[in-house]
């Protein structure tokens, strides 16, 4: 089923689904019951800089985990135990969500492990960025931009095509970094913008695209959201943007020049969920992509909660199908 954006601009195709299994219904009820405890965990502080995980304790089905650092940021490569026949020529860098305040979770590693197992032509890596509240955007975003440039340069030298993927706040960051880098290149008359490497594809799952939280549809969806509330998303946004204006394009990608994605031929795929207070802004961002000719495939799953893909580890059917959709889309890139 195609929505208005898809009919108007064929470069953006949107599939709408509205199923909700009994098991997912139960999970959402449990999540709603314990929402206050879950949201309070987001305020916990972590060490300054990139958060390091214990690779020895990480147990991923069919994969191993190795650690490296780039520009002082820990990156975790997820490597299938069954080695591919050919050297991979694609690379997925995944930025995990967590309200800019929690490190990648076990659920994130399981999703990325599936991608690594199912895409033998693609290396999959999780990036552990510095976290708010002690490492908010004014100090962290410049570090992430340096990392972005270095990862793109390394991929170009290795002959790899890069896919940037992320969920929630991680999706926010990959959109912000890519758009800001494109703007820097476009505004710099001394550089040949076409020769500077960028990702070929972005995959944004339940993205946070506008930190002002001014969209009136947020309040309309709030009663249906079992996980997030307007108060929660305002607090977490403030913890990230800190002294910067919430509308600053470096934290609210909806305010950057989205047409630069189309000019560079960067595809933007995504997932939005109907029981997610962040979905109205994600849908607006998707519409802006359609207006300026960005190509992409999107799924809107009406009765699902924020980042429902992360329940894949527990056998939730909608999550398994959505992650398989992600794999199928990225296999074609």
UniProtKB/TrEMBL annotation:
Alpha/beta hydrolase fold-3 domain segment(s): 93-309
Protein name as catalogued: Alpha/beta hydrolase fold-3 domain-containing protein
Residues passing through the membrane, by range: none
Coiled-coil blocks: none
Record-linked Pfam families: Abhydrolase_3 (PF07859)
GO MF, one annotated term: hydrolase activity
Keyword annotations from UniProtKB, A to Z: Hydrolase
Gene3D superfamilies linked to this entry: alpha/beta hydrolase (3.40.50.1820)
UniProt-listed InterPro entries: AB_hydrolase_3, AB_hydrolase_fold, GDXG_lipolytic_enzyme
């Amino acid at each position: 089923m195609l929505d208005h954006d898809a009919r108007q601009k064929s470069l953006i195709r949107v599939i709408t689904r509205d199923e909700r299994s009994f098991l997912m219904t139960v999970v959402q009820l449990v999540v709603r019951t314990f929402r206050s405890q879950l949201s309070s965990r987001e305020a916990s502080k972590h060490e300054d800089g990139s958060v390091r995980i214990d690779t020895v304790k990480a147990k991923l089905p069919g994969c191993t985990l190795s650690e490296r650092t780039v520009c002082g940021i820990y990156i975790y490569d997820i490597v299938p135990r069954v080695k591919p026949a050919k050297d991979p020529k694609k690379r997925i860098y995944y930025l995990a969500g967590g309200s800019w305040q929690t490190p990648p979770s076990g659920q994130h590693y399981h999703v990325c492990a599936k991608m690594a197992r199912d895409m033998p032509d693609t290396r999959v890596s999780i990036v552990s960025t510095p976290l708010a509240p002690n490492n908010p955007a004014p100090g962290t975003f410049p570090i992430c931009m340096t990392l972005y440039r270095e990862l793109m340069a390394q991929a170009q030298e290795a002959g790899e095509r890069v896919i940037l993927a992320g969920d929630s706040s991680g999706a926010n960051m990959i959109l912000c970094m890519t758009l800001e880098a494109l703007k820097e290149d476009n505004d710099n008359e001394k550089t040949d913008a076409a020769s500077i490497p960028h990702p070929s594809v972005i995959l944004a799952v339940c993205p946070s695209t506008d930190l002002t939280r001014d969209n009136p549809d947020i309040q309309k969806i709030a009663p249906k959201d079992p996980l997030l509330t307007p108060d929660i998303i305002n607090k977490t946004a403030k913890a990230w943007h800190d002294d910067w204006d919430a509308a600053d394009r470096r934290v609210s990608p909806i305010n950057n020049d989205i047409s630069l994605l189309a000019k560079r031929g960067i595809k933007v795929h995504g997932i939005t969920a109907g029981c997610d207070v962040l979905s109205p802004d994600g849908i607006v961002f998707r519409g802006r992509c359609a207006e300026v000719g960005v190509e992409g495939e999107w799924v809107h799953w009406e009765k699902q909660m924020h980042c429902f893909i992360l329940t894949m580890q527990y056998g939730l059917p909608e999550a398994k199908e959505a992650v398989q959709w992600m794999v199928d889309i990225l296999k074609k890139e």
